[in-house]
Write a structure and sequence with these properties.
248 residues, mainly alpha, 13 helices, 43% helix, 0% strand
Length: 248
C-alpha cells in the first residue's frame, strides 16, 4: 500500500485537525501507534509543522469523515492518475558518479562469464550504453588493456537476484530459439557464485608432443657420474722438473 509523503507532518495535521484514532493515523502514514501517541503528547517530532493531506491532494474529506464515524475504517490514499506507472523505471539504470568508473570492469565480467546476455540486458543491469558494451566485446575500447573483469554485484551496480533473473531469461530465450550451445557456453551458463568458485582449467598439451613433457636435452645420470671432476688447483700446477734444472 502506498504511503503519503511527509508522514510525520501529515500525522501532526491529522492529530490537530481530526478526531481519527491513533491506530487509524498510524496505519495511514506507516508509523507505529506509539509514535502517533508520542506526537500527540509532544514527545515525538516537536516543532514539526502540520502538512494538510487534503489540500495537497493525498486524502479526501470524505475519507476523513468516514474514519471519524467508524474507528474500523482504514484511510485510503487518494488515487492520482498522474502517478500511475511512476514506480516503473524506464531507460538505463542510474549509476552514481562514484561508481561510474567501475562500469567497464563489470561489463567485461558479464561479457566474459555470461556471453548469453544481450546488450540490452547488460545495459539495464549496470546502467551503460550499447556502444560501450560493443566496444568491450570487440576489444576496441580505448582503455581495454587496463580493464580487469569484476563482478557487478560485488561493485554494487546490480543485485544478485537481478543478475540471476537476467541469466535465466537469456538461457530460456536461447533454448526457445533452438540454439545449440557449445561446451564452453554451457560451462558459463551458471550462477554468479558458481562462476566465481570455478578453478581455471589447466592448459592442454598438444597431441603432437604428448609423452615428451619429461624429455630433456641433457645426458643420462651415469654419463654425468663418469665425467672427470677437474680440481681447480690442477690449473695452477706446472709440470714438475728436476732439481738440477733449477740450479744455475
Amino acid at each position: 500500500m502506498s504511503k503519503p509523503i511527509m508522514a510525520k507532518a501529515t500525522a501532526v495535521w491529522l492529530i490537530d485537525n481530526t478526531t481519527i484514532s491513533f491506530k487509524q493515523i498510524a496505519d495511514f502514514v506507516g508509523m507505529h501507534e506509539l509514535e502517533i501517541q508520542g506526537i500527540a503528547d509532544g514527545d515525538v517530532a516537536p516543532g514539526v509543522k502540520g502538512f494538510d493531506p487534503v489540500a495537497n491532494n493525498q486524502l479526501t474529506q470524505e475519507e476523513i469523515d468516514a474514519a471519524e464515524k467508524s474507528p474500523l475504517h482504514k484511510l485510503k490514499l487518494k488515487f492520482n492518475a498522474a502517478a500511475v506507472g511512476e514506480e516503473k523505471r524506464r531507460g538505463p539504470r542510474y549509476t552514481p558518479l562514484s561508481k561510474r568508473q567501475d562500469r567497464p570492469a563489470s561489463i567485461y565480467w558479464l561479457v566474459k562469464f555470461h556471453p548469453e546476455l544481450s546488450d540490452g540486458q547488460i545495459s539495464k543491469l549496470v546502467g551503460t550504453t550499447k556502444p560501450t558494451i560493443q566496444a568491450i566485446r570487440e576489444r576496441t575500447h580505448w582503455n581495454i588493456a587496463n580493464i580487469t573483469p569484476v563482478d557487478p554485484v560485488a561493485l554494487g551496480l546490480c543485485k544478485q537476484s537481478e543478475l540471476d533473473s537476467a541469466v535465466q531469461k537469456a538461457v530460456a530465450k536461447k533454448a526457445a530459439e533452438g540454439g545449440v550451445m557449445s561446451d564452453d557456453e554451457r560451462r558459463k551458463l551458471v550462477s554468479t557464485e558458481q562462476s566465481l568458485s570455478m578453478e581455471e582449467e589447466a592448459p592442454k598439451i598438444p597431441t603432437a608432443i604428448e609423452g615428451l613433457e619429461t624429455f630433456s636435452l641433457g645426458g643420462d645420470d651415469e654419463d654425468e657420474k663418469e665425467e672427470e671432476i677437474i680440481d681447480a688447483d690442477s690449473f695452477f700446477n706446472l709440470p714438475g722438473g728436476s732439481d738440477e734444472d733449477e740450479q744455475p
